[in-house]
């Protein structure tokens, strides 16, 4: 038996341990600096003295001597001292780490059943995924604890944007070597053919012959089939008078290799579905880094740019129409980010936003979801770092700009130009209240009463619930 040596060491009940640690962390720490570092996460997922003691007890009651255990481990290709921390008399709580090889070894010796081991592995894989997700979330935090908008979407380990290998695909899917199709004919004849596209892009249909379909879309293939099938089956033709109908469907998609480069978390070559898009490749590569752009991701094909992707279209509007379908050998390149500005205050989605050239304050506020109900809709304040050419000797390096406009009242504000590093602050409306009277004393509900023109004292007392029963009137 060859021992399995997983890259991450699983740990008994680590999912419960990590979930407890995260749930007990203060909210401010969980959201920002309190997230576990890689080393801390590993420590959380390693030593469990209580479980180590249980394992030590099982080994002690197995009837095997330490020498027999070491001999069996050596024969199976494990280090013979792998289980020494769990033998009787060992100080296991100080040195033992429950790991994948330990699980395999105790299963080999018959101390733990297969189902139990697999269950433990499943729990610890989930725990490691949670830790990885939390650490990644912390990387998406920018200055002042604000998140870089959109970056956390790629940090979720459970997120997959990969089409199913069995489809379905639309009529614009480009066929190529490795695709598998099924062709149904019904009516005058009843036939089904399972077909595969060869390396040369050829599709061979019995009794019809070879069709060069590499590079054709699924819709173009249907047009070609009307011609070629019509030569063999007279009932195949367009229109309601056809006596033989056909359907062609892609049953299995080919795998293509694409390259993700630039400011991404894990640059490299990736195998994705033939229907995969730029977003699918980015998800596989972990998304842009903190310094990567989310607004202009380039798709290069044979040395030239064929398309670009703005992830904000997907994040803000759910629009994936600009998500280009990739071909084998394409390069998805993430350049360095563009201008970023910070939105804080009484705005729906405070965060750090990246701007495209020509975008203004109005675009930032729209992207941030607009104003909160209690936001001041007459002005916003911009803290700006002056560009180097505007900084005089001994002069200010930073300025505060008040943007006052009636366009904030019923919209997102004016098209005020933004500069790199701008910080936009939206203020709340005043806390003061007007048009009220206060009723105090022996009434059922003391407090403020909304004032109405012509209101009398008796009406105010009535709205306050009326006098208490013991009031001397």
- The tally of strands reads 17
**What is the end-to-end distance?**
96 Å
Q: What is the alpha-carbon Rg in Å?
A: 34 Å
- Tally of DSSP helical segments: 13
Helical percentage: 25-40%
| Low-confidence blocks of residues | 1-48, 123-140
SSE-based structural type: alpha+beta
Q: H/E order of the elements? A: HHHHHHHHEEEEHEEEHEEHEEEHEEEEEH
**What percent of residues are in strands?**
15-25%
**Sheet with most strands:** 5 strands, mixed
Give the strand order, joined by hyphens, for the main sheet.
Answer: 7-6-10-8-9
Shape: extended
Average predicted local confidence, pLDDT? 79
In short:
The chain is an alpha+beta fold and 473 residues long. The chain has helices at residues 14-24, 27-31, 38-44, 49-60, 66-75, 92-95, 100-108, 114-139, 218-232, 278-284, 311-317, 361-367, 457-463; strands at 180-187, 191-196, 202-205, 209-212, 244-252, 255-262, 268-273, 297-301, 304-309, 331-334, 339-345, 351-355, 379-385, 398-404, 423-426, 436-439, 447-450.
Describe the structure.
There is one protein chain. The protein has 473 residues and is of the alpha+beta class. The chain is built from 13 helices and 17 strands. It has helices at 14-24, 27-31, 38-44, 49-60, 66-75, 92-95, 100-108, 114-139, 218-232, 278-284, 311-317, 361-367, 457-463, and strands at residues 180-187, 191-196, 202-205, 209-212, 244-252, 255-262, 268-273, 297-301, 304-309, 331-334, 339-345, 351-355, 379-385, 398-404, 423-426, 436-439, 447-450. The strands form five sheets. It has a five-stranded mixed β-sheet, covered by helices on one side. Strands 12-11-15-13-14 form a five-stranded mixed β-sheet, with helices on one face. A hairpin with a 3-residue loop joins strand 1 (180-187) and strand 2 (191-196). Helix 1 packs parallel to helix 8 (114-139). The longest helix is centred in the N-terminal third of the chain and has 26 residues, at 114-139. 25% of the residues are buried. Mean pLDDT is 79; it is low at 1-48 and 123-140.
């Amino acid at each position: 038996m060859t021992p399995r040596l997983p890259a991450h060491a699983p740990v008994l009940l680590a999912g419960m341990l990590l979930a407890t640690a995260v749930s007990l962390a203060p909210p401010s720490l969980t959201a920002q600096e309190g997230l576990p570092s890689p080393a801390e996460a590993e420590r959380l997922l390693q030593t469990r003295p209580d479980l180590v003691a249980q394992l030590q007890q099982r080994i002690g009651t197995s009837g095997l001597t330490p020498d027999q255990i070491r001999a069996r481990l050596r024969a199976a290709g494990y280090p013979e001292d792998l289980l020494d921390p769990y033998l009787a008399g060992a100080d296991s709580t100080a040195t033992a780490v429950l790991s994948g090889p330990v699980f395999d070894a105790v299963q080999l010796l018959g101390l733990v059943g297969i189902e139990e081991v697999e269950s433990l592995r499943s729990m610890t894989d989930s725990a490691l995924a949670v830790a990885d997700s939390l650490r990644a979330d912390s990387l998406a935090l920018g200055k002042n604890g604000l998140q870089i908008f959109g970056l956390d979407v790629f940090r979720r380990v459970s997120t997959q944007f990969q089409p199913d290998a069995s489809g379905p695909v639309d009529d614009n899917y480009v066929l190529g070597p490795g695709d598998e199709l099924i062709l149904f004919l019904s009516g005058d004849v009843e036939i089904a053919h399972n077909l595969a596209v060869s390396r040369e892009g050829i599709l061979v249909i019995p009794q019809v012959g070879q069709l060069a379909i590499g590079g054709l879309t699924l819709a173009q293939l249907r047009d070609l089939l009307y011609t070629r099938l019509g030569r063999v089956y007279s009932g195949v033709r367009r229109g309601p008078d056809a006596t033989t109908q056909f359907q062609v469907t892609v049953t299995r998609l080919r795998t293509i290799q694409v390259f993700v480069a630039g400011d991404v978390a894990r640059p490299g070559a990736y195998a994705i579905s033939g229907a995969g898009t730029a977003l699918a490749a980015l998800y596989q590569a972990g998304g842009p880094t903190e310094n990567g752009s989310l607004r202009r991701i380039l798709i290069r094909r044979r040395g030239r740019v064929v398309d670009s992707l703005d992830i904000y279209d997907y994040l803000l509007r759910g629009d994936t129409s600009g998500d280009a379908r990739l071909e084998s050998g394409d390069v998805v390149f993430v350049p360095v980010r563009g201008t970023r500005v910070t939105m804080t205050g009484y705005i729906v989605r405070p965060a750090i936003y990246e701007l495209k050239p020509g975008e203004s304050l109005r675009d930032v506020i729209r992207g941030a979801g607009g104003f909160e109900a209690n936001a001041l809709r007459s002005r916003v304040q911009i803290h700006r770092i002056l560009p180097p050419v505007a900084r005089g000797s001994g002069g200010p390096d930073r300025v505060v700009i008040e943007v006052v406009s009636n366009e904030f009242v019923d919209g997102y504000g004016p098209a005020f130009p933004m500069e790199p590093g701008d910080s936009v602050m939206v203020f709340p409306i005043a806390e003061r209240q007007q048009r009220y009277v206060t009723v105090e004393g022996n009434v059922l509900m003391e407090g403020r009463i909304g004032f109405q023109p012509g209101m009398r004292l008796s009406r105010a007392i009535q709205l306050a619930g009326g006098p208490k029963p013991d009031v001397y009137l």
